[in-house]
Amino acid sequence: MDIRGVDPRDTTWELDHARYRVYFWDRANAVSDEYEISGEVDVEEVLAWAAQFAEEHRYTVYVSVKTSGDSGLIRLTGVLGDPFARPLSAARDEQAAESAAIRIGPFTPG
Prior knowledge:
The protein is an alpha+beta fold. Helices cover 26% and strands 31% of the residues. A 4-stranded antiparallel beta sheet has the order 2-1-3-4, covered by helices on one side. The model has no long low-confidence stretch (mean pLDDT 84).
């Protein structure tokens, strides 16, 4: 984390209420449910709602922004990267198992 002092005069605009997106990830079925939250809502309310609504699913909360007419998302919290990607440890375990099977070979009764 990098922390530095700033000059508050370096910004040209400010919004009191943002538009948020919350994605709930169902990894078992490789699908997601997406919601947009807007109005007079603070980020704390959005985070509390997401945590309560998520149940057993993982989720990501974004703030939705537009720059030069293009829409984009900035992640605030939750899953980082591809939520459907296999964890690196699972890929390593699978690769190690395949390697061991090649070295040992099939069992032949003698």
